[in-house]
Amino acid sequence: MTLKKLTILTIIFLSICFTSNAQTAKNSLPDGYSIMPNFPFVIIEDNGINYDLQVSDSLFNNNSVGARFRVNRTVIDPTSEFYTTYKNQLLPLLYGSNLTIKKLFIRGAASPEGPYENNRRLGIGRAKALYAIIAEDLQRVLDGKEPLRTDSKTIIEDYGYLIHLMRESDDPDYEVVRNIFEGCNRDEKKTKALLMKERGGALWYRLLHQYFDRLRTARIMLVVRENSSKAETKTIVPNQIHVDVIPNKHLDPVQIPHVDFGYVNTNLEAAPDSCRRHLIALRTNLLRDFLYMPQFGWAPGIDVQLEYYPLDGHYTYNAGFTWTNHHHWGSQEFFQIRDLQLELRRYFRGHGDFTGLYLGAYLEGTVYGIGFSKKKGWQGEGVGAGVTFGYVMPLNRRGNWRLEFMAAAGGFVTRFDPYVYGNPVTNEEDKFYYYDYLGSASSFKKRNHQFTWFGPTNLGIQLTYDILYRHPKQVKKGGAR
């Protein structure tokens, strides 16, 4: 045999093996199971099978179907292709056939952009949303004879499905992304960090626009039992049955079993340097940093705030200090303020996702010396309390830079004394400052004046940056993130 013939035979043999393996991988089901025509996400189990089908990631990714979601949303569109197919084709088939639902597999997921904790919330919320619209119908198919068995998972950032989509599309970067994911031991956080750095971010940007919208999903697979022959089941034509035959009005309520929508735990120990969970952030109010005061002019100061983030929950704890020290001796103008603030915040999203809307309560204490001219100045102290309301948004993909818009309202009480430059009795400018008081010296007491204010107390455009992170062991001990 010549070398040329041997080469040709080798190529033919490898092609046959590759094609066979690819087909087997796509449709690999154990004996006794088959895919329902027109519904690849429904697996038919022959009558007499006495073991549960083990649904692998590859089987689920190849055959599942589900609903897509808009960015940062957990609401299913009732006009979506999945919902209409489910209502108008699959449900009538299940009601009118000899099939019994054996198990529902459901997975909710998020695309990788955005903060990791928010993606966990989205994945759980999407799985719950899909379950909510199908569980009662499927339980009715069972006719109350047995509870609906459900296998539910949440994949926080679904890189496995991303790789599946890239392979199906013959994407040239399929091997690059797969190798990164497998090289990180399938750790989502480390995969995200490396993908965002690959080619200076160009690969991440392309994946974002080409694939990420298909990762914002909740998907299902059904395993149903065939109670008679296969031939009888295959004679059912789902498109000939309309949703109107489903008795979905005026039905008695059914009991839906509780389902735990837990999330898939990632291997945090495999990549401890990737588990960055913020502990303390530094914040500054840009409006105070570049303050302009009428009658005085520009009066920028230093505004420093520290926010402490627990591992989970809704609440954070804040402490801040504002310091300005402007003095113009020639014109006797002063703007000197020392203000300490303490604040408790409650973020509405929860689950440790400290972004979005929040409501807070604050306390503050202030000492000040303010002078607009030789005859117009005040010195005193004050205390205040009230509520804050704001919105926090990430500025970058990692989420360690954030922008905040906030406002505060409450009460402020101050006791103070006015002061003037020069002797107020003789009107001689003797280079001293005096309290603006013309009564008896023996009767003088400091802080003879009081002012009380109720209404708006603060306004802010604030910039936040994470400065301290928790140790990965603390993150794992507190819960997988």
Q: What count of domains describes the coordinates? A: 2
Mean pLDDT: 80
Write down the overall geometry: elongated
Q: Kindly provide the radius of gyration, computed on alpha-carbon positions and rounded to a whole number of angstroms.
A: 33 Å
Supply the number of helical segments.
11
The strands making up the biggest β-sheet line up spatially as: 7-10-11-12-13-14-15-17
Weakly predicted, low-confidence segments: 10-26, 229-251, 265-275, 476-481
According to DSSP, the number of beta strands is: 17
Portion in beta strands = 35-45%
Helix amount: 25-40%
Secondary structural class: alpha+beta
End-to-end span in angstroms?
A: 61 Å
Characterize the largest beta sheet: strand count, sense, and whether it forms a barrel: 8 strands, antiparallel, barrel
Query: How are helices and strands ordered from N to C?
Result: HEEHEHEHEHHHHEHEHEEEEEEEEEEH
Keywords:
481 residues; alpha+beta; Porin; 2 domains; eight-stranded antiparallel beta barrel; six-stranded mixed β-sheet; 11 helices; 27% helix; elongated
Helix and strand topology:
Elements: H1 3-27, E1 33-36, E2 39-45, H2 57-63, E3 65-68, H3 81-96, E4 99-110, H4 116-141, E5 150-157, H5 159-168, H6 174-183, H7 188-197, H8 202-210, E6 217-226, H9 230-234, E7 278-285, H10 286-289, E8 292-293, E9 297-298, E10 302-308, E11 315-328, E12 333-347, E13 356-373, E14 376-394, E15 401-421, E16 433-435, E17 449-469, H11 472-478
Parallel strand pairs: 2-6, 4-5
Antiparallel strand pairs: 1-2, 3-6, 4-6, 7-10, 7-17, 8-9, 10-11, 11-12, 12-13, 13-14, 14-15, 15-16, 15-17
